[in-house]
Protein 1
Amino acid sequence: MHVGFGGTPANERRFTKKRSSRRRMRISKESMNRLVMDYLVGKGYREVAEAFWCDSGTKPHVDLQSVQERMSIQQLLLKGQIQKARSKLASMDPEFLDKNNGMDFLLTKQELIELIKAHSIEEALQFAIKNLAPFGQKSPQFLHEIERTMSVIAFKNPSESPLGHLLEQAQRRRVADEVNSAILRSQKQELEPMLPSMVQQFHFMEDQLEAKLNRRSHGIRIEESTH
């Protein structure tokens, strides 16, 4: 059986189009190595990044020690150890929180949440008055968040309040992600490494090409010979 588009075998046509598409998408090995390194650094895989540096000769844009520090801060935030995370941030960049008022507020609010989680209500109230209220006085845009967070204290069982999700681990993760993004911005790194999106784009283009070829297959000419 011979299958073809106007005399050209279908399999050969499909192979030719795929090869042509891949050739257009091809990038240099150096560029690909850079994408891989940026991905490893952005995700915090310090040891893998070091090994890749040795193997490929692709030097990271930042000191890999800063990657370790960034991951340490992430782990502290995920454990709810806000003061220790602040100390690490100050060691990494003494002006980081001074330049990022939003991050300073986020960490202060999270510290209050941790006190509420520990059922240290009296301490939480004193902390809010001393440390959180000044944000609202200086920057009115923080007032709503302060009021929302403080409302959790009004419930006998804070975890069952309408804002009980603030006491869940997912809240720590959100804070850790926001701080991580702020650190990357301060280091002028990509917030979202390009490598995963390029892979997704490649697969999307392949799927589109397959769909196009399948649509055209309705017009093929089939010649069948029996011997």
Protein 2
Amino acid sequence: MSLRKYSLRGELLGSIFGSPLVTDLQNDRIDVLNKLLSPKVLPVGGNVVAYELLQTLSTRAIQSGIFDTVGQFGTVVRSFLGPLTLPYSLDFDRAAKTERMYDYVIVGAGSAGSTLAARLTEDEDVTVLVIEAGGEESHFNNVPIFAVLTQRTDIDWGYYSVPQTRSARGLNNKQIPASRGKVVGGSSSINLMIYSRGNPIDYERWQELGATGWNSSAMDPYFVKMENTTDPTSQPGYHGTTGPLTISTVSETFPVDSAFHEGLKQYGLKIGDYNANDQERFQYSPFTIRDGRRCSTGRAYLGPASSRKNLDILLFSRVTKIIFDDDKRAIGVEFTNSEKDYQVFARKKVIISTGGIATPQLLMLSGIGPRDQLEKFNIPIVHESPGVGNNLQDHPFTFFLFTTKADTSILLARDLIPNLAVYSATHKGRFASSGANVVGFYRSKFANDSRPDLQIYEFAYSFGGGAPDFYLGYIFNFDRQTLVNYALPNTFSDGTAYVISLVKPRSTGTIKLASSNIRDPPLIDFNFFTDPRDLDAMAEGCRLVLNISMTPSMQTVEPRRYNSTLPGCEQYPLDSNDYLKCLIQTITYTLWHSVGTASMGLASNPLAVVSPDLHVHGVKDLMVVDTSVMPAITTGNTNTPTIAIAERVADMLKGRVLRAKSLPYTDEYEYINDYVPYQIDD
């Protein structure tokens, strides 16, 4: 097929990358993309496009070949990024898909699994197999600004909650999307890359709940150990500089970012490093980004270790069951690859690291879980464990949208090509962050203790500015009325979005089986807002954002909130507390931070699933190492604590731990050897 340059964008892209980039088919796709991105397609202002027209555009986009599904907008941008290379290589699939024996079999190459595999294989006498259901990362997910666009793609499990009763009223069927990474690096490969350790009190609370040995002074050395901090604004004495995980800050800000950052100060809020001695403050976001590209655990840990002869990695392989012997000892797993079934065995441990949603599903399908769930689907009981799938905790959020004056934010139709040009040449510029450029924590008057209970994000784009509305409508699962009334009026306008998240929720939910087939997604019930104080706290966070938007600094970007009453909330005065609570219960999402569904605790607690050494109660040689073991959710993003857990468990399995030490200190490691486990079930 001959190559030709078709449109202005095609010519520009060809010149960017030094050679003709697009085939005839790709030219056609670019032409359709040009039309879809044109402001002439969707009217702006009062004449809001009909929902049916929006659906028609989506359908035509699919039929045109731009998408394989609505969830494949990224294929277009991926074609633009073709000449870019991945920031790391991964040596995988060396292992034969036959019966083999390893010291450790790790299920899942996510935030925890990749970390564990890399650390355990530092000992060349230890053999490890990692089994991952997804594939490698791509250059697309490594471009930070496209973080949100990785949702509903082939590297996302694409879960949805069951219909909610007290939230998500503005979403189709009241179902909340629950993205989880189905790729090397897991959710660290699709998240917003925010680096947040949580609050020291979080870990003291873990210990109070029976997670002996997991207090803040035990965790702090592992936060330092993982870090390679390059952020000049980080507080001295609280960060590491020699670890595998790079932490950087926003490389280039937008006017909406600096206006909000200054507005926070004008409102009297504290600015500084929230990972240091005081979490209740705001800062330009610390990101897990290295040289302008995502620094997932695949890049930081698994990739550099993947060439080791004692490490095998299987991709596109789905573990379906844990194998036990007659003594309830985990001896291996069953998995599928290319529609064929295999078994693999472990000499020492089987370690499950599939996350807060998939881990309880796999445990139950393997015979460990609540009796009623196992009997309902005729699953032979290996060990009755009532806590499996219970205690689900996540961070609910809602958001506000503002339009701003021209050239103050990201606007896809205007900025995609020139910013891709800069990024492809330098890995710098405005595409070198996720767009969530200011983040911080705030304590409402409804907080339980001294910890902040709210996290607020400022985004350098508004709905429709960061991607076509029909695609974002698909990602967010908006129903017709909500999409038309809340999102579309901001189409093709500069703007900003503010996310208000509750980081100390009181409500808990459940993960239950849908069937005995692992291919059927589990039933996820977040059960948000069963405690009215959760709504009160979020409403206070919404009020805070509205007040900051009125500061002199924010007025320089001329913020204008679309103030049409949200469908379903018409009975309340606009922006009254009742209206804000209604908005929160209508526009409800989760930050993908599901924890607690295989909680850590002592054997005397019937709801504890794993011991403080993360061995599953009631069986032998089976461990869980991921977010599901957290007995209570951390105050902030969960990726960083998950990596720290995996770092510490790897040391435990080596018979040592870093000596507990409270910050501040930097890059000083002292191991306690001959480590004695707190508790391992016989």
